[in-house]
Each structure stands twice: as C-alpha cells, then as structure tokens.
Amino acid sequence: MPQHTREIHLAARPVGEPKPSDFRLVEVDLPDPGPSELLVRNTWMSVDPYMRGRMNAARSYAAPYEVGEPLYGGAIGEVLATGDERFAVGDVVLHQAGWREHAVVSARAASVVETGGAPVQYALGALGMPGLTAYTGLQLASLREGDVVFVSGAAGAVGSMAAQLAKLRGNTVIGSAGTPTKVASLRDELGLDAAFDYHDGPVAELLARAAPDGIDVYFDNVGGEHLEAAIGAMRDYGRIAVCGSISGYNATEPPPGPRNMSLVVGKRLTLRGFIVLDHDDLRPEFVREAGPALADGRIVVRETVRDGLEAAPQALIDLLRGENVGKMLVRLG
Ligand code: NDP
Description:
Elements: E1 4-10, E2 23-29, E3 37-46, H1 50-54, E4 75-82, E5 92-95, E6 102-106, E7 111-112, H2 129-140, E8 148-151, H3 157-168, E9 172-177, H4 180-188, E10 194-197, H5 203-210, E11 215-220, H6 224-233, E12 234-242, H7 262-266, E13 270-273, H8 283-295, E14 303-307, H9 312-321, E15 327-331
Parallel strand pairs: 8-9, 8-11, 9-10, 11-12, 12-13, 14-15
Antiparallel strand pairs: 1-2, 3-4, 3-6, 3-15, 4-5, 5-7
Helix pairs in contact: 2-3, 2-8, 5-6
C-alpha cells in the first residue's frame, strides 16, 4: 500500500485570473483507511468552473477552499483497501476527493461508478454532474416541443449536453461559443440549427440574426452580455434557466447586471436559478433519456483531457479561458 501521495493545495487566493503560484503540489503521508473508509487510487479528476468560486474566501452555496489545504471536487478511482463491506478492492468509485493521487474517503461519500458500458469518465461529465445540470435546467425551464432554445457556453460540458438534449426533443437550438472551431463543431457535429462566436460582435445582434423570431428558452451558462441579449430576444412568457455566469468568475468587482430587466415584467419572463445538488431526484429520468442517446451516438461527447496531477492547476486556468472543448478532465492513473 502506498504510504505517501501527492495533492494540490491552495497556496493563495487568486485575484482575478488564477496563476500557477496560487496552487502548490505537496507530498503528504497517506493514512490507512479506518472502519467505513476506503483507500482510493484516483484515475480521473474533474475540473469545473465552480472551483474558481471556492478559491475565493466568500461563502456561497458551498464552503470555500482553505489556503494551505487541498482542493477537492469530483473524482473517480480504484479502491485499493476497504473498511466497508459494501465495497470491494478493485471497485471503481466516484467521490469528492479530487486534486490528489490517492485519497482516504468516507464510504458514505463514495458510490460505485455505473456508466452502462460507457467510458468510466462519463460519470464526471455527460452522465455525471454536468449532464444532470443540463437536464435539470431544461426541466426547470419547462422546455416544450417547438420552443426555440438558446444555449450559451454551448461547446462546454453542461452546454453541449443541454443543447443536444433540447435538440433530441425536437426543439430549434441555437448555441454560442468562443472560437470558430467550437462554432463549427456545434453546427456540424452536434447538429445545432445555428451557432455563433460571441467575439464576432454585440451578442444581441448575433442572437437576433440567429433567431430572428426570438427565443422561448435561454440556458444561461455565461451571464453578463449574453443574459442581457437573451432577455432582449425573449418572446412573451419565455423562461431562463440561470445555471452559471462564467463571464464574471474571474472579475475583481461584481459585474453589472442586465440593463433591460424591465423587459422581464413586460414580457412576463421567468428567471430560475438552480443548483444541481438539489435535484438528484431527477437523475433516474435523466439517465433514462440521455443514456440510450449517448450509447447510440445521438449525443456526441467531447472531452479535453490533461495528463498528470501537475497539469491540474493549468487545466483550471485554461477552462476559465475557454481552452477546453467539452468536459475538462485530468487523467491521473
Ligand atoms: P464548460 O465546459 O462550459 O467550460 C467553461 C467554458 O466557459 C469555457 O470553455 C469557455 O468557452 C466559457 N467561457 C469562459 N469565459 C467566458 C466568457 N467571458 N464569456 C463566455 N463564455 C466564457 O464548463 P461547465 O460546462 O462545467 O460549466 C458551464 C456553466 O455551468 C458554468 O457557468 C458553471 O458554473 C455552471 N454550472 C452550474 C451548475 C449548477 O448547479 N447551477 C453545475 C455545473 C456547472 P468559450 O470558448 O465558449 O468561451
């Protein structure tokens, strides 16, 4: 059994964009697992936008990371030793002690990965938290047949699933993303009806061109100018699933809100924020809908994979810069 392992600690709270020096790679002793604990060798770790928020001191819906302590987040690993009879050595488990090569985790906080034959890392992406987030947002936006749906961050982990699930249900889907290559992939690989690069002009103009008759549903991953443009493009009784606002995650001052909030009244709009953690009850129906479509290729999965724990800090920096296509992952094993 390994006696030591390596993990990434928060060295300093970032100001603006995180820097490599905000992270520290540390070698630590590895305790033996006690009763009801598992010793896990991590093989994959997830890199997610919410991790940037936890590097700040402010408490949001989740506690912040502590300076001098390891970061954490979704990870998959192989059980090397078990203090819980429900798990066997060799089981592949999902847990929250990412950002390290090995972890001793509470058995209660781990679950055996079941992807129905799909690659195991889908449990961190298309079939995991981001996929469920996409499904939840569409449910909360009361997606109906015939709706025109706009998804921002559409080439990312959540956005690509939201856009494809809406498309599979027969909706007209428009996506935005940050590079011409991503935009081409949205149209050609993911089958969206229209897509644009938000760097090509004011988002309101780009959206009006892509959806000349307006939109019914906006799945907001980005906030800022995108949200304002979507409110402007909404038809009466439109619904907005407020999932994230990544355009402001590295901001040092709170970004201004949309200037056209009065339209929310006149158009009778619904803006619904949500946190996926509150909606685990939707997981079975999400897997029923997405699982077969993933298996037969009707949903396309894109991943950006970095190798080795050392690569994890830059993977988070790059995620916030838009250098990922699809789910950002670090392969550890
Ligand atoms: P992504 O895979 O979408 O990666 C982040 C993407 O954000 C980048 O690839 C980049 O793509 C885009 N981006 C970065 N900066 C900007 C900017 N200034 N303007 C527009 N786009 C930008 O991440 P996830 O799919 O994991 O997360 C997407 C969103 O969903 C995030 O806001 C996240 O916080 C939120 N989320 C919310 C959850 C909830 O429970 N509410 C749960 C999980 C995620 P590009 O090249 O297109 O700019």
